[in-house]
Design brief:
Length: 240
């Protein structure tokens, strides 16, 4: 506990020393966040987490999780972001047992930046190791919280890029949400399909042809960005 308190104090000192009040104002406005900001940059956060990992390779799992949770519990967005990065730099601790922690973090998220970080880099890492994690995605897909639904859609993105993941599960989620008006859901569907198209464009084309008359223009444009002109024509010429 004392070691964790010392590390928190050290992190907070470095964050404050690198604060940028002007950047803090702009970032808070851009992210529409209810939290406070010091105005540190993402590269700075990454370096803090990376340097911590280099100097602390043998930290116990429970200490890393506690440190991340303490940072996440801060009123400052910069510290929340650092908590996520600390977890990311300890991939050996990203396993199914961590999913309740990640789910709690997602449920408390109020913007796309943290939701995307948790979903893609943390939940995605767990998914790559343990298929039981899909149980969480199924539950999130039916949540009243649209950020949780977005998490269900984008958590497989890194897997899709390399031809892995459960495409049928994603298609089920996407078809269920295809008529939603929420921008972040429409964008997430298109994003997931775009990443999938890198390894399996045929499946993406087939899905888009099936939903083209219900999908938003945003979803169709995002999903088809990497498709050939011929494939795009087969979708857009026949869509409404």
């Amino acid at each position: 506990m004392n070691a964790i308190r010392r590390q928190l104090t050290s992190f907070r000192r470095m964050i404050k020393e690198n604060a940028d009040p002007e950047r803090a104002v702009h970032e808070k406005q851009y992210l529409k966040s209810p939290f406070k900001f010091f105005g540190t940059s993402v590269p700075f956060t990454d370096k803090l987490a990376k340097d911590f990992r280099k100097a602390n390779r043998d930290v116990r799992r429970e200490d890393i999780v506690e440190l991340a949770e303490r940072l996440w519990g801060s009123d400052y967005h910069d510290e929340k972001r650092l908590g996520l990065r600390v977890l990311q730099y300890y991939p050996e601790y990203l396993d199914f047992a961590l999913m309740p922690v990640l789910e709690k973090m997602l449920a408390a998220s109020t913007g796309w930046d943290c939701v995307d970080d948790i979903s893609i880099h943390l939940v995605g890492a767990v998914l790559s190791k343990d298929a039981r994690t899909y149980r969480y995605l199924r539950r999130w897909s039916a949540s009243d919280n649209f950020w949780m639904r977005r998490a269900a859609l984008i958590s497989q993105i890194l897997l899709f890029r390399v031809g892995r993941g459960d495409k049928d599960l994603f298609f089920g989620f996407a078809e269920m949400m295809i008529s939603e008006k929420e921008f972040f859901i429409r964008k997430a569907i298109g994003w997931g399909l775009r990443e999938m198209s890198k390894a399996d464009p045929e499946s993406v084309v087939s899905f888009l042809q099936r939903v083209r008359n219900r999908a938003s223009g945003l979803t169709l444009r995002e999903a088809s960005k990497l498709l050939s002109e011929k494939q795009k024509a087969g979708i857009f010429l026949l869509s409404k």
